[in-house]
Write a structure and sequence with these properties.
- The chain is of the alpha+beta class.
- The protein contains 18 helices and 22 strands.
- The strands form 6 sheets. Strands 11, 12, 13, 14, 17, 18, 19 and 20 form an 8-stranded mixed β-sheet that branches. It has a 4-stranded mixed β-sheet with strand order 1-10-9-8, with helices on one face.
- Strand 17, helix 14 and strand 18 form a beta-alpha-beta unit.
- The longest helix has about 35 residues.
- The radius of gyration is 28 Å and the shape is globular.
- About 40% of the residues are buried.
Length: about 625
């Protein structure tokens, strides 16, 4: 028997495709000969054909086996990251689909800004190891409860951690960062929501420069869920802005790069607004690989390439190194040819695609929406359920997105296997059920079976517009399918592509829209990551944000369950309560789930330690350990 080591088995993946192609060729060759001989000389074949067939079969199989042994039996090539020692130096370029708007993570409200600020420029109290799927120490080298009620946590910081300006990272900085998150003048609404425990704030008591106590207003299931959000900021640099209430105005893209003090692996080198942000190694970064200081890279550029059509070309030209969330069409293109680009399907990500209707009672300018016909449709859960049943998620996932997506039955991605409710059935495409729900809600079909036209009980034709980010090709493709699906139940839906900043402005500030195809990005598996989406008072409660009091009974019930879940420590009870939340959301459908796209990441073969994750920030989660193989020392 031919034994293969684990590394050789990994390498054999590259040989399997050509191997299968050669087997197919051998079989085709074999059957071609059989057919030919049958047609020309059946009698002769009876006498000698069997011998000939055996020779052809044996020679073809021997050829294939020899190729397999050559491909897999030898040593693993040197360009495999597993067998290479990381190289220090060099630069790498990472693609962003949209430009970041700030380098101040406290006011970051979109994924590019989150990556450009929080991921690149901060160290957290704890980190989430995407490979092992667990929390690990970071700036906090240890933490433990000191009381039986588990309301007080003693945290010890690393003594060698410094900011990029060389000043030590201390308990004063952690306390400052937490207070900045809670200060309404900072406008850090999303971070504040994520750091509240039952609407109450945590507080810090400083013991020494490297020790402090965190007082929790209530017992929590996992304190790490909160510590991972604390990207430590320098008090000595930002205290004046904090005192004057101008912390939200710091570190804009136009700021002097030298003024941006980092606790993370990199510092800002230069910014071209709307085009790129280039970072240099932070010489005072605290992490090492045991022998050498991290990060390995000298420079990293986040480059905005809005047109996805250009990204694959850039990868193959070598002017782009890493591309997360590759389009299905590009993945198919790579799979069909030899390339220096390595693509990896990490499975369904935690980010999701869903539709919601505008349930705000008024626009930001005061114009009432709740007196209009469309608000009445959107507010009726039977209408939302009918729309949901009309959508063919299987076709979107399997055909439109070429198998690189998974249909969803709720707001939680199937990629979050630990917390996805097993009791939620798949949402079946059922036009008959959709029509029955619409009839029950008073809607009338005035068209024909082949061309239905839906009207409400007052005679208003049912039509609405759907905003879609113009830069997001997969969502535009989804919208086209959904548009055709809704025609089958008589609904006219206009698809309106709009730049992503315009989309977020409309649903987050002006409320001047009817429906949106967008989604949700969460940063880890824990249910607490969804709090600022689920809570009625939260700024990311997409369909009706920042409610002073819950607008509906079911939102009030979800608020209660989220509060109870956040303080529950029994895993079984936590699971049961989060399942209840998912059940309510699946019934009420304030967001109509579509799919969770798979995170398909691609990298040039020159990139080492490339280990993409389905969880934000995807290929950048271990950016301090990523290196380029052709770096010059």
């Amino acid at each position: 028997m031919y034994a293969l080591s684990d590394q050789k088995l990994e390498h054999c993946k590259d040989a399997i495709v050509p191997l299968l192609q050669n087997i197919r060729f051998a079989v085709q060759k074999l059957w071609s000969v059989i057919a030919l001989k049958l047609r020309i000389r059946l009698q002769w074949l009876r006498k000698v054909g069997v011998t000939m067939i055996k020779k052809i079969a044996v020679s073809s199989i021997v050829f294939v086996w020899v190729q397999f042994v050559i491909s897999c039996g030898g040593p693993v090539p040197a360009n495999k990251a597993e067998s290479e020692k990381p190289v220090r130096g060099g630069s790498m370029t990472y693609r962003l689909s949209n430009p970041p708007t700030t380098l101040n993570y406290l006011v970051a409200v979109d994924e590019p800004s989150y990556i450009a600020s929080f991921i690149m420029l901060t160290s957290r109290l704890v980190d989430f190891d995407h490979k092992e799927q667990k929390y690990v120490p970071a700036l906090a080298e240890s933490w433990q409860f000191t009381d039986a009620e588990q309301r007080t946590v003693l945290v010890k910081l690393r003594s060698d951690a410094k900011f990029s300006d060389g000043s030590p990272i201390t308990a004063e900085d952690v306390d400052f960062t937490l207070k900045a998150m809670y200060d309404d003048r900072t406008k850090a609404a999303a971070w504040k929501d994520a750091m509240l425990i039952g609407d109450k704030q945590m507080s810090i008591k400083i013991i020494s420069p490297t020790e402090f106590q965190v007082a929790l207003p209530e017992k929590v299931a996992s304190v790490e869920n909160y510590f991972v959000n604390v990207g430590v900021l320098p008090k000595s640099v930002l205290s004046k802005e904090m005192e004057s209430g101008k912390l939200s105005e710091i570190w804009k893209l136009t700021a002097d790069p030298k003024s941006v003090v980092s606790s993370g692996a990199f510092v800002v080198d230069s910014v071209k607004a709307g085009e790129s942000v280039t970072y240099s190694r932070n010489p005072h970064y605290w992490k090492t690989d045991g022998a050498e200081k991290l990060p390995y890279l000298d420079k990293l550029t986040l480059e905005v390439v809005a047109d996805a059509n250009n990204v694959l070309t850039r990868l193959e030209q070598g002017t782009m190194d890493v591309f997360d969330r590759m389009r299905p069409a590009d993945h198919a293109t790579l799979a069909g040819r030899q390339s220096a680009i390595k693509a990896s399907d990490a499975g369904p990500g935690l980010s999701t695609d869903h539709i919601w209707f505008n349930l705000n009672p008024a626009k930001a300018n005061g114009e009432r929406l709740d007196s209009g016909a469309k608000y009445k449709w959107f507010s009726d859960k039977r209408f939302r359920q009918a729309v949901s049943h009309a959508i063919d998620r299987t076709t979107i996932a399997a055909t439109t997105l070429r198998g690189l997506a998974s249909p969803m039955s709720g707001f939680v991605s199937p990629g979050n296997k630990k917390w996805l409710s097993e009791s939620l059935p798949p949402i079946k495409t059922d036009v008959a059920r959709a029509n029955a729900l619409l009839s029950e809600a008073g809607f009338v079909n005035k068209g024909t079976a082949e061309a239905p036209e839906l009207y409400d009980a007052t005679g208003v034709k049912v039509e609405f517009s759907l905003l879609v980010p113009a830069e997001n090709e997969p969502r535009k493709l989804m919208a086209a399918v959904i548009q055709e699906d809704l025609k089958k139940i008589g609904i006219t839906m206009q698809v309106v592509p709009l730049e992503v900043q315009g989309v977020t402005e409309r649903f987050g500030k002006s409320f001047e829209y009817e429906a949106v195809l967008f989604g949700l990005s969460v940063s880890d598996l824990e249910p607490s990551s969804y709090s600022n989406f689920l809570l009625s008072k939260a700024a990311t409660h997409q369909w009706h944000p920042s409610q002073k009091v819950p607008a509906t009974d079911w939102e009030r019930e979800i608020d209660r369950l989220v509060g109870e879940h956040s303080t529950e420590t029994d895993p079984a009870v936590r699971k049961q309560k989060f399942n209840e939340i998912q059940g309510i959301m699946a019934d009420e459908l304030p967001v109509i789930p579509i799919v969770a796209r798979h995170v398909v990441a691609a990298a040039n073969s020159r990139v080492g330690n490339f280990s993409p994750s389905p969880i934000l920030p995807y290929s950048l989660w271990n950016i301090d350990k990523v290196f380029v193989k052709d770096a010059v020392r």
